[in-house]
Amino acid sequence: MPAGWVVSPGDADEVSEVLRFAAAEGLSVVPTGAGTKLDWGAPPTHVDVLIDLARLTGVLEHSPGELTATIAAGTPMRAIRARLLREGQRLPLDVGSPGATLGGVLATGEAGPLRHRFGAPRDLVVGVRMALDEGSLERQVDGRDLARDACGSYGTLGVITEATVRLEPMPAARAWVVRPVATPREVQRLTEAVVGSSLEPAAIEADLPGGSGARPAELSALFEGSREAALARAEAAAKLLGGGATVEQLPPAWWGRYPFGADDVALKIWGRPSELFAVVYALRDAAGTPVPVRGSVGLGVAEVALPDSIAPERLDGMLTAARTVLLARGGGGCTLLRAPVELRDLVETYGPGHLTDAAVRLKRALDPEDRLAPGRLPDPA
C-alpha cells in the first residue's frame, strides 16, 4: 500500500501537529518505527501519511531503584538493552525482529521466549503517551487502561510516542537445557513435566523444523539466577527430561528467532498449551507434510512458516483446520501474520468473526473517523 507522504517528526509535539493537520484535512495516518513488522497483520486500506518515528529515541527517564524507565517510542530494542545493561537491568522483551523499536514492539504485541516468565508487552508497560486522532497527547483516557489497550493495537488507536516500562535485574547466570524430540505430542508431554515441576524456568521453547532432511526437532528450557542456582535447576531439568537432554551455557541457534524467513508466509497460533500439539498435527494434515513451527510451548504460542508459493486453497484449508481445532479444544486463534497480497485477498487474516463490542467502542471513542491505520483490525461490523 503506497503512502502519499512520509513525515519524520522530531518529538511528541510534532507528532501531535501532524495528527492535527491530518484531522483537519481528513487524511489517514499509519505510524512506523523501524518497519520490521509493517507487513504483519492486515494491510491498511489506504495510507495518506506514514509517520516515521525513528527520530523519537532515547531513554527519557530511568529509575534504577524503582525498576522503571520511560523510553521514546522510536528507540531500537538493541539500544535499550545496551543502555540498561550498564545498570545491570533489562527490559524482558527478547523479540525476534532484528532492529525492532519499542513502539513497534508494543503496537504489535510482539514478545519472545521470556514472555513465559515475564509476560507480553501489555504486562510490562506501566504507562504510555499517545497522540490521538485529533492531535491531543494523552497519558490517560477516562475509564481505560491506555497502556494495555495500545499493546497489540497496530497503531489503530493512536500513535505511541513514549512508554514507561517495568524492568528486571539482569540475572547473574543463565543455563539452557536442550533435548531432542520426535513428535509434537512428545513436546507437550515434556513441557508439562517441566511446567509441573518446581524448577521455575524463565522460558520454554520448541523448534519443530519440519520437512525432509531438516535438522532434529528440539525442546529447550532456560533457567536464570545465581550461577549455582541456575546450573542446579538446569541439571535437575535435564535429568527430568531424560532422552539425551544436555545443559548448555549458550542457547540453541534457533532460540529467539522466528521460523519464517523474509519471503515466507507466516502464521501465529495460540491456545491452551495442552492443546497446541493438536493444532500442529492439524496443520501438518492440511499441508500434507510437516511444517516448520517454533515458539513458547509453555504458554501455547507459536509461529509457523509456509512457502510463499503455497496455493490459496491450501493456505485457506490450513487456516480453517487450525481454527477449527482451537475452537473445539477450548479457544485460541490462528492469525495470518504475513503473506503476499494475492494470498491475503483470498483468505481471512484474523479468522471468522469480528471485533468484540468493547474493542469496537474503544476504536470509535479514540478514532471516530477511522483515520488511524484504517483496515488494520478486523471488520467492526
From TrEMBL:
Q: What is this protein called?
A: FAD-binding oxidoreductase
* Positions of the FAD-binding PCMH-type domain: 1-170
* Origin: domain of life: Bacteria
Which InterPro entries does the record associate with it? FAD-bd_PCMH, FAD-bd_PCMH-like_sf, FAD-bd_PCMH_sub2, FAD-linked_Oxase-like_C, Oxid_FAD_bind_N
Instruction: Note the Gene3D superfamilies from the entry.
Output: 3.30.465.10
KW rRNA processing (keyword) present: no
UniProt cross-references to Pfam families, sorted A to Z: FAD_binding_4
- Supply the source organism's classification: Bacteria, Bacillati, Actinomycetota, Actinomycetes, Micromonosporales
Keywords tagged on the record: FAD, Flavoprotein
